[in-house]
Specification:
This protein is mainly alpha-helical. The chain is built from 15 helices and 7 strands. Helix 2 runs antiparallel to helix 3, helix 6 packs antiparallel against helix 7 and helix 13 packs across helix 14.
């Protein structure tokens, strides 16, 4: 049993199954008492906590992050019930929620994302909000479910050119090329403004936007801005696109009809900054890729393909910075991915072994179709 006095001079207590648990709790509680935080956590219902979270987190995290958090919180609230107190939630409710999500047909990757999201949110209920004591995060001990590692869907240069040839407007050509060569996320591309484009240095800037008369407030993921190198061909497409841009529109990829709608909505007070600047892109991409005879892909696959191409030539820390990854483990996926060329090299090595050839790593292919393998230092064979 651990006993302590709160700031109101009332005595409080908590019991534990083992002395070790009690001693660990005592260390934490002693620090809290010294800092004037020895009182029991304030009671709040899960419903009030969800509503409060939506209000206090606006502006603190990217709008897409907050949307993910609210989606997961509302699903969890629907699962356990509206009237439950936050302090009454136990790990068994968290386990039950995970089981429900899996049985509903949700993908393992999606359920794992829910676990990470709710773990983060309930940690905020502990610190800084003080609704739960330390160590009482109901998702704290919930492990992510194992899933098979999927190969990265890679868009070859041939498929990219097919998409380009199918795109009938400068707008679509510029969008495809920007996504395939800069590695920027779709939302980052859509929020590009003309002031972000440096035509002299062939660069674009990914940066936050403050809400104003013509701009919607926006933050890049993890609030990290960065500068991206852009091929000359892409900058030329952007220059061509600028001649078609609607007057007064600061955005690179917002067409005139959409810009008119946004302006009318802002004047009417119905526009929300978290709305996507351009809608229905996935539907249009599906139509274009079928017309081009290209396999299934998404805009994010264009970004992934750019990072994979970089991984063949750049050090991993440079790719991490260019990609805007906060965790280098995410970048390693692209550095360690196996592509078609790698498979062909592996096949040639094994074929050489089966024919009784050497496995000396100094052996290289001549580069000619049907050419021979030789030592680089040996010179031509006789």
């Amino acid at each position: 049993m651990v006993r302590w006095f709160g700031s109101d001079r009332n005595r409080y207590s908590k019991s534990f199954k083992t002395r070790k648990e009690a001693e660990r709790f005592t260390e934490i509680k002693q620090a809290e008492v010294r800092e004037g935080r020895g009182d029991p956590p304030e009671e709040i219902t899960l419903t009030d906590f969800v509503n409060e979270h939506e209000q206090v987190m606006k502006g603190q995290v990217a709008s897409e992050t907050l949307q993910d958090q609210m989606r997961a919180l509302k699903m969890f609230k629907a699962h356990v019930g509206d009237g439950m107190s936050l302090s009454e939630i136990r790990p068994r409710q968290a386990e039950s929620f995970v089981a429900m999500r899996l049985s509903s047909g949700a993908k393992v990757a999606t359920v794992n994302k829910d676990i990470r999201t709710l773990k983060r949110v309930f940690n905020l209920a502990i610190n800084p909000r003080g609704y739960l004591p330390p160590g009482e995060d109901p998702f704290g001990g919930i492990k992510q479910r194992k899933q098979s590692v999927k190969s990265i869907r890679y868009v070859t240069s041939e498929d990219y050119r097919k998409l380009q040839s199918t795109a009938s407007t400068t707008w679509w050509k510029a969008l495809f090329t920007a996504a395939y060569t800069t590695g920027a996320r779709l939302n980052e591309i859509l929020n590009l403004t003309w002031s972000d484009a440096d035509f002299a240095q062939n660069r674009i800037r990914i940066a936050s936007k403050e809400a104003g008369d013509t701009l919607a407030g926006w933050e890049p993921k993890d609030h990290e801005g960065r500068i991206l190198p852009v091929p000359v061909e892409v900058m030329q497409l952007l220059a061509d696109l600028q001649t078609e841009a609607p007057e007064g529109c600061p955005y690179v990829f917002v067409p005139d009809w959409r810009w008119d709608y946004i302006q009318k909505s802002r004047k009417a007070g119905t526009w929300q900054d978290e709305q996507r600047l351009v809608n229905n892109l996935n539907r249009h991409l599906e139509t274009l890729r079928k017309r081009a005879g290209v396999g299934k892909l998404t805009y994010h696959d264009l970004r992934r393909s750019c990072l994979t191409n970089w991984a063949r030539h750049l050090p991993i820390h440079a790719i991490q910075k260019l990609a805007g990854h906060s965790d280098i483990k995410t970048t390693q996926v692209y550095s360690l991915s196996v592509q078609h060329d790698d498979l062909e090299k592996a096949r040639r090595v094994q074929s050489r072994i089966l024919r009784g050839g050497s496995t000396d790593p100094k052996l290289t292919h001549s580069g000619r179709k049907g050419g021979s393998l030789r030592r680089e230092a040996d010179g031509p064979s006789t």
